[in-house]
Write a structure and sequence with these properties.
The complex is a heterodimer of chains A (267) and B (268). Chain A is of the alpha/beta class and 267 residues long. Chain A has seven helices and 15 strands. In chain A, helix 5 links the parallel strand 14 and strand 15. Chain B has a seven-stranded parallel beta sheet with strand order 9-13-8-1-6-7-14, sandwiched between helices. In chain B, helix 4 crosses helix 5. Chain B is globular and about 65 Å long. The N and C termini of chain B lie far apart (58 Å). Classes of the chains: A alpha/beta (267), B alpha/beta (268). Strand 13 of chain A pairs antiparallel with strand 12 of chain B.
Chain lengths: 267, 268
Amino acid sequence: MAYSKKILVVGELSDGNVRGITGELLGVGRRLADVIGAELSVLFFGSDIGETAKHAFAQGADRVYAADDPYVEDYKPEIYADTVVKLCNDMTQSALSLGATLLGRDLAPRVAWRLKSGLASDCVDLNIDSETGALIATRPVYGGKALAEVDCGTTLPAMATVRPKLQEALPIDSARNGEVTMVSVDAGSGVARTRVVDRVTIEVKGMRLEDARIVVGGGRGLGSIEHWSVLEALADDLKGAVGATRWACAMKDTAIRRFRLAYPQRE
Amino acid sequence: MCLKLLVFVKQIPDPEIPPSLFRIDLQNAAVVPPVGSIPVLSLLDELAVEAALRLKDEHGGEVMVVSLCNDPVMKVLRKPLAMGADELVLLQDTAFEGGDAFSTAQALAAAAARIGDYDLIVCGTQAGDWDNGQVGTYVAEALDIPCITGGGRIKVTDGKIQVECSNGDTTETVEAFLPALVTAGNDVGKARYPKLRDIMAAGRKQPQVWNVQDLGIDPSNVGIAGALTKIRRLYVEEKADECEIIEGDTPAEAGENLALKLRELRII
């Protein structure tokens, strides 16, 4: 079936699985695609990922693209951006959504600039304006004190990054299946302008903030860095993680750095 | 090597304004700061200034601060000068009003191009008001220079930068050739406090003020005319807060009562 409208999700994989955020993006993408009668696609990057990428069909995708190349196993900003831009230019996309993850936050503006697309960052909800058909993104602003509804404008694709854990993934429908479409990667010299020269894994004890059901939060009111150990002890007892406000995160201190501040910019 | 460093900073309403005093002009989808509240420099932009000053301390050179602001509070925008920056450039023009990240970046990129010969541009990863996290990357794309986001410690050697970028699980060192742009994250560390003497000296420095003509850009590319996104509605979410204070004769007893309550609610 040929669709005139298309919605593309930039997917993420980790340890041979489709990441939670990608399932959530496919959930919201499916809802929007059904409203405007669009095809929902997802693009994955990685090496030897064909089988893993297929899972996205059962999560709501109509089409699955894979940039399957050892060169893009790790995130390479300029290469990823070029590949997404090329896919958007080849098949005009109505909307493009990414996770408001480390990857999405870095990649989305690079792509948006090249496509001259309106981008709404770190959204909590996406909808389609029933009159204009424009993508309307809802996002917290002013440290969460207010919500803004952003009209992503008329340049296609309209773009948004979506905050993890707020949208529902669809139930797995294993009857949905398909063939993965391969996408070539231009690994030519001169495209990559930044390169990772060293990578150190940080040993952090306790639960990841992303995975925690209970978060013990702290901020300026704690008064001093020494008091953070109280939060850590409480989080341990509750089998939760410690979170911190923006102010606390900026108080660069080894004591605080021990905590997992996966959302350092969130109050 | 002496470095020419540019820093972009943004003056924003004080994020510490308590929610009870936070007001919105629904008609214009704008925030109305409470009377008497003084704006601040966006926190991560202040860290960007700090990152640039450390490079100046180490290598020598100059730090130029650029800010697009039509209603500047000079005490706020002079803070980078008091911290040790050399010059302040204000981009001021009614044409800049109503801009989004995209059209703001056009003006900042034009300013950087006018200044020229910069080795490194630093700005905050995102501003503490709209939190878009886009302007830095857009400027780098516009200037066609490498961009590293969420940077912490920056090292410069032999025409290259190495930036430590930490994400909680790993710390990566990312390398690029100069000129480049780095967006500063929390890992930069604490910004220095200006000394009283330097605050006084900064107060006597006059900023350069550039408008659209000075930048040589088409007014249709900046402000609301050049914006790709539009704020359709800005509102405060109705929250039905229910807060129960758990009492106890001693802090220990209150803690115990809280734990019991949480257990009762099956939260723990």
